[in-house]
Amino acid sequence: MKLFHLSDLHIGKTVNNFSMIDEQAYILGKILEDIKREKPEAVLISGDVYDRSNPSIEAVRLLGSFLTYLAENDLDVILISGNHDSSGRLSFCSELIKRSRVYIHSVFNGYQKPIVLSDEYGNINFYTVPFIRITDVNNAYDTDITDYTEAFGLVVKNMNLNRSERNVLLSHQFVAGASFSESEEASSVGGLDCISEIVYEPFDYVALGHIHRAQGFNSNRIRYCGTQLKYSVKEVNQNKSYTVITLGEKHGENLCDIDIRTVPLIPKHDMISIEGSFEDIISAKLNENGIISDDYAYITLTDKGYIDDAAIKLRKLYPRLMSVDYKMSEQNWNINMSDSGETTGQRSPFEMFSDFFTTVNNGEGMNDSQMDILNKAIKEVWGE
What's the CATH fold of domain 2-264? Predict the structure, then answer.
């Protein structure tokens, strides 16, 4: 049986005030083209379907059209909620939708009944565990567990797996040792919510969601497919993809034969990072549209001093400019902090700020306009 593994669609996401909805519609369209060509039997979506618990109308419509296409083309769709999703909203009409073979599991209650599909080698049992916390497990089983691995191990134990048949799990959690991106680092608290990959080992394949970087464990049988688009400056060098899995024959209680491959995805507009001097960056070759690039650009300037209206000037050439930062040399920040409070108190605010400004600008002092601004600010705070 051939499966497509997707996750972390984050439909409706906004990055640096840019809506990603058109980019998401484009990339989902490319995936649908691949589905039409490759004809998988099922599509697995491992959580964070939406980017927020209260998705926009555009986001709901995009997911609706995507799922409708899959259902109309005789595919089974198995979908779980992630930490960004509202379990209640995502499960709306799930019992009715199930008649179209779109199975949505967004509310964890401890009861594990698999979705059973079959092929020429027999049954495949699909287990679905939406994003859960320890409190969810303790409430479901009336326990007092404090460790995430132990908690998830109890969830797996209650599945009563038939090891003579093939078993697939959809899960949206942190696995210990996974390589995080910017957004996941922000949501993990000291690694306390990480789960050992050991609890996933009984499954023939584990379709993971939650981490934006594609990666695998245990010969890729336990796998994050990653996001299908770049959503952070720390992801600009990542190659985005989805995962295709073909499950083969089972050999007793051993894991089944399996083929796992990734399919690269080329976005409508890429996300790039550019570093250099202001003059070098604006002097790059123009394209046929009279701009330098229409990709989502993070620009880091290496100039000694600040460039007036840099973002405004750069946006004319990079219309999807995400941000402009400055990269100062280490000597810029090697500020002498050894002055005593008494010495500092003998210097005027103007003198102290002037020295600071000169230090972080490689010895270049303020111009007349900047000194006027500083003087006005000082007078507003301290008076004459």
Answer: Purple Acid Phosphatase; chain A, domain 2 (3.60.21)
Q: Which residues are paired to 104 by β-bridges? A: 79
* Regions in the chain scoring below 70 on pLDDT: 181-192, 328-346, 359-363, 384
Q: How far apart are CA 109 and CA 51, in angstroms?
A: 23
Q: In angstroms, rounded to a whole number, what is the distance separating the alpha carbons of residues 68 and 296?
A: 30
**Euclidean distance between CA atoms 238 and 139, whole angstroms:** 39
C-beta of residue 310 within 8 angstroms of C-beta of residue 302: no
Tokens representing 124 are 């495949």
How far is the C-alpha of 177 from the C-alpha of 179, rounded, in Å?
6
| Pairing outcome for strands 194-195 and 205-209 | unpaired
The per-residue pLDDT for 340 is 44
Handedness of CA 229, 27, 23, 275 (dihedral sign): positive
**What would the pLDDT profile of 137-159 be if each residue is shown by its tens digit?**
999 999 999 999 999 999 999 99
The two tokens of residue 215 are 């990666």
> Domain boundaries in the chain?
2-264, 271-326, 330-382
Q: Residue 67's pLDDT is what?
A: 96
Work out whether the CA dihedral 75, 81, 116, 201 comes out positive or negative. positive
How many of the other CB atoms lie within 10 Å of CB of 232? 19
Distance CA 190, CA 198 (A): 20
What pTM does this model have?
A: 0.84
